[in-house]
Amino acid sequence: MIKSTGIVRDVDPLGRVVIPIELRKTMDIQEYDPLEIYTNDNQILLKKYQPACILCGSAENLSTHQGKKICQICRTGIAKESVVYLHKASF
């Protein structure tokens, strides 16, 4: 649910908006933390970026392969499919 904070900020000439420190502390946003930008009709929404698996969207137990995030469950599934494929290919 979206609720108003009552805070209004101007956009500077470079297009930047300062997020008040009170909101950054509340949302646990540190300096240089990445934020995702979403749009919804005439709204702009900012969300703290949380990397997720490119296959299923999970944010748990991630590792990186060739620059892409993949979760443990998907890695296991890919490994099992690879073993089955290699086994079938050897016959």
What is the helix content? 25-40%
Beta content comes to 15-25%
Work out the count of structural domains.
2
State the CATH class of the largest domain.
Mainly Beta
Q: What's the arrangement of strands in the largest beta sheet?
A: 1-2
Backbone CA Rg: 21 Å
Please characterize this protein's 3D structure:
- The protein is α+β, with helices and mostly antiparallel strands.
- It folds into two domains: 1-49, Pemi-like Protein 1, Chain: D (Ribbon); 51-91, no CATH class.
- It has two helices and four strands; from the N terminus they run H-E-E-E-E-H.
- The chain has helices at 21-26, 72-89; strands spanning 35-40, 43-48, 62-65, 68-71.
- The strands form two sheets. The protein has a two-stranded antiparallel sheet. Strands 3-4 form a two-stranded antiparallel sheet.
Itemize the secondary structure elements and their pairings.
Layout: H1 21-26, E1 35-40, E2 43-48, E3 62-65, E4 68-71, H2 72-89
Antiparallel strand pairs: 1-2, 3-4
